Amino acid sequence: MTETATVTLNEPVHDNGDSHTNGVHHANGDCQTNGDLQDAFVDRVPISANTPELVPGLVDQVASLGKVASVRDHTDRTTLLEAARSLVYALETPRGAMIRYCWSQSTLYASVETGVDLGLFAILSKDEKPKSAAELAKATGADPVLLARILKHLCAMGVILETGPNEYRRKGISISLSLQRYSDAYPCMTNCITSGILALPAQLKKDGYTNPSNGKECSFQRGFRTDLHFFEFMKENPEAASQFNNHMSAYHQGRPSWMDVGFYDVPSLFSNVTQDDVLLVDVGGSVGHDLSEFRRKWSDAPGRLVLQDLPDVIAQAKTGQLHPSIEAMEYDFFTEQPIKGARAYYMHSVLHDWTDDNCRKILKGLVDVMKRGHSNVLINENVIPDTNAYWETTSLDIIMMADFASTERTEAHWHQLVGSAGLKITKIWSAQRGVESLIECELA
Prior knowledge:
The protein has helices at residues 34-44, 55-68, 74-91, 94-118, 120-124, 133-140, 144-156, 172-176, 180-183, 185-192, 194-198, 200-206, 219-224, 230-236, 238-252, 289-297, 311-319, 356-367, 391-404, 411-420; strands spanning 23-25, 31-33, 131-132, 161-164, 167-169, 278-283, 304-309, 326-330, 344-348, 376-381, 383-384, 409-410, 423-429, 437-443. By secondary structure, the protein is α/β, with parallel strands linked by helices. Mean pLDDT is 89; it is low at 1-32. It is 46% helix and 14% strand. The strands form 4 sheets. It has a 7-stranded mixed beta sheet with strand order 8-7-6-9-10-14-13, sandwiched between helices.
């Protein structure tokens, strides 16, 4: 045993002056037991900053960025935000983090969802004028005492602004929550996502901590007490399905699209394509958001655009605002692909719903109809980096683990998966951290 024991804390650990035979000897001659040292850690670590050595550098970084960053510029804003978030994590104590994880997140969620159900945010966001808790209670029909308690928590967690005692006004997030496209995210998670995530620890323990691989025997079924796969469950719960679609729409808003100039070389798809040829098949393309975007951004593109999904979804697409030039086709991607030799077969956030075995079936169905030297596959999905992964992507990975027994994949995983189906990746096109890449594949 060495003569000195080093404890990395904000302040030194001293013993109580007692002498013990089974002790740790310090350079000053004091003797401290292993038990005392453990007690010191227990007493001091939970109330000390997590990584105090990082604080000075992060303070300088935030201050420097704050002087030059434009909050209207996405890159500037997110760079400053991530530096500020890192500073908070460095300053936060383990005790503070524990309370934040265990208390604030679940209670905030419950408060926001209650506010959504009451129509609170729509009332609060009508104008910039501050509104009292009593006024808001009268407008929503809620018990004044109850609502005042919820409003205080919403304020404490940054959802609304406090302008005086029991008086509040709107801010950006509360304005967004007044719109169903955004507010649907909260009942959506309650109705079809969160219970599966909360059941994940018990399910993993039951399965001996093996990686989930069966979408009909995962924590989703445990959490929602059902035998149905997620998609079967959604079919029987149309309200949850509608909320889910709104949530996904809001999730994708404002994010770079592979169709944008400077992301992917879209004109490269146009070579050797006539007006009668199929340019792009959106496999499992829901109600056609992506193809409609493509038609808007590339109105002069040659060839046909084909939307494929299950009958119920296609029926919904036809009643929506699908561009008349887009062909809507009923199709199950586990069956034979009816469109042969298209220039590109495109899938957006499809494969992350499925295990590798099912993904191989989907991809092999495309391999069988591709024309060598002409057809390619475009996979619009997350590619998790080996380091510095983004929290939105890792969060989604855990959601997919819990509710689908599937995964967000790394670059190595993507190469292995597409290779096993008879394809090879020619290039992975990326725009910015945390945004889905475009994985371009051709026949191997």
